């Protein structure tokens, strides 16, 4: 009488080969996943900056007050929508001060909503991811008529407008703004 030996399951060698193959494939995919994560971070930050500019334009039109979007304010990689103090033709000296983006001196939301005291419409201080930075930037002014100006310039942006760039290493995303207030990601 012969007995058949039956073996169910996997051997230790089968398991080691499978784990080794999985490790090699995962190591090959890691750089690609890192690139995808970096691209998603850059795209997300670019959309956040674009939305802040859209919000500033809307706030300027609805509140009938000029709004600015300041970049690298108060420090590199930070940006904030701020209400213009004074008028577009004669801004208050405090409007250009280094602490204008300070969320302690100019809190969000405003301490009061009295229309006689300004500012009442400042936005929250926003920060880019620490791996990102602004490239080309200018302080933009959104006027109640919907037009966009460089800060302190009476005429709206002309021609193709201006660009704001957000970068991660050598990868750059661009947001264009024209004088009529059209904001778009390129």
Entry keywords:
elongated, four-stranded antiparallel beta sheet, 186 residues, five-stranded antiparallel beta sheet, alpha+beta, minor pseudopilin epsh fold
Overview of this structure, please?
This protein has one helix at 12-63; strands spanning 67-71, 78-83, 126-127, 133-134, 140-142, 148-150, 162-168, 171-177, 183-185. Helix content is 28%, strand content 20%. The chain is an alpha+beta fold and 186 residues long. It has one helix and nine strands, in the order αβββββββββ. Strand 8 and strand 9 form a beta hairpin. It starts with 11 loop residues before the first helix and ends with a strand. The chain has a five-stranded antiparallel sheet with strand order 3-2-1-5-6. The protein has a four-stranded antiparallel sheet with strand order 4-7-8-9, with helices on one face.
The top level CATH class name: Alpha Beta
Shape: elongated
Strand order of the largest sheet: 3-2-1-5-6
Q: How confident is the prediction overall: mean pLDDT?
A: 84
Helix-strand makeup class = alpha+beta
Q: What is the count of distinct domains?
A: 1
Largest sheet: 5 strands, antiparallel
Determine the fraction of residues in helical runs and give it as a percent range: 25-40%
The total strand number stands at 9
Known CATH architecture: 3-Layer(bab) Sandwich
CATH-defined topology: minor pseudopilin epsh fold
Strand fraction band? 15-25%
Give the helices and strands as they follow along the chain: HEEEEEEEEE
Distance between the termini: 80 Å
CATH homologous superfamily identity:
minor pseudopilin epsh domain
